[in-house]
Amino acid sequence: MVADRFCGHVRRHDFFNLCGPAPRTGGTISPGRAPARTYPRMSASLPPFASRAQSRPRGNGTATRDVLIEAAIPHFLRHGFEGVSVSQLAKAAKAFPNHVTYHFGGKEGLFVEAASQAMLRAAKQAEKSSLNSASVEEHTRLLISNLLGPSSGTVMLFAEAMLLARRKPHLSTRIKATLHQLNDAGEAAMVLTLMRTGWRTRVAPSVITRSFWASIFGLALQKAAMGKAFEQESAEAVARLMINLDNAPGEKKYDSPRP
């Protein structure tokens, strides 16, 4: 079963408590050349991207590290990487500049960590904004409009962190982990959405999720480079592409039979 196999995979990773108890029934695939994947409708609403409370003990070092990240996120969002100094970041966290070096190896490490955490939060917020969508099309457009609208600064911040990691290979581990988390959590959220609504898809949720994030980061870079000259037709093209992947031919909804 698609959902069971994926949820089993998610439970082996400690990031979001996405799946909850494993469902007893699995998905079915319709016959045909381009099969549509369907999932049993669930009566209970399972919120995607639900955070898992961390129970690990938090010493002074961990607390200082967290405070630095929280203080850095708004500064980096306003000024970017180049526009803020280590001393300013430390002052905002009521810490010392050597704390940035101790916990992150320097400003670059703090920037990548702050951008990664901000991106995961933006993804969670986008998923929440589309939770009650009435159709696949509405769901897709809400996700894109949220990430390229209110959260566009955060998406661009993470895109900048990815470019920084290209020049600083030692930072790539955190970037890769964040991308895997976005893909895995997004796939899990999509599986839960399909199970809850009974919508159909042409391809596996993992394919749709990876295509979605690749498109979002590409659009963010294009929007940042073009500014006001950015053409909304580019975002519309991505929306149409994702809608086409999500929907089975000629059908927007599928009421799965009761077990």
From TrEMBL:
<dbReference type="InterPro" id="IPR036271">
    <property type="entry name" value="Tet_transcr_reg_TetR-rel_C_sf"/>
</dbReference>
<dbReference type="GO" id="GO:0000976">
    <property type="term" value="F:transcription cis-regulatory region binding"/>
</dbReference>
<dbReference type="InterPro" id="IPR050109">
    <property type="entry name" value="HTH-type_TetR-like_transc_reg"/>
</dbReference>
<dbReference type="Pfam" id="PF00440">
    <property type="entry name" value="TetR_N"/>
</dbReference>
<protein>
    <submittedName>
        <fullName>TetR family transcriptional regulator</fullName>
    </submittedName>
</protein>
<dbReference type="Pfam" id="PF16914">
    <property type="entry name" value="TetR_C_12"/>
</dbReference>
<feature type="domain" description="HTH tetR-type">
    <location>
        <begin position="62"/>
        <end position="122"/>
    </location>
</feature>
<keyword id="KW-0804">Transcription</keyword>
<keyword id="KW-0238">DNA-binding</keyword>
<feature type="DNA-binding region" description="H-T-H motif">
    <location>
        <begin position="85"/>
        <end position="104"/>
    </location>
</feature>
<dbReference type="InterPro" id="IPR009057">
    <property type="entry name" value="Homeodomain-like_sf"/>
</dbReference>
<dbReference type="InterPro" id="IPR011075">
    <property type="entry name" value="TetR_C"/>
</dbReference>
<dbReference type="GO" id="GO:0003700">
    <property type="term" value="F:DNA-binding transcription factor activity"/>
</dbReference>
<keyword id="KW-0805">Transcription regulation</keyword>
<dbReference type="InterPro" id="IPR001647">
    <property type="entry name" value="HTH_TetR"/>
</dbReference>
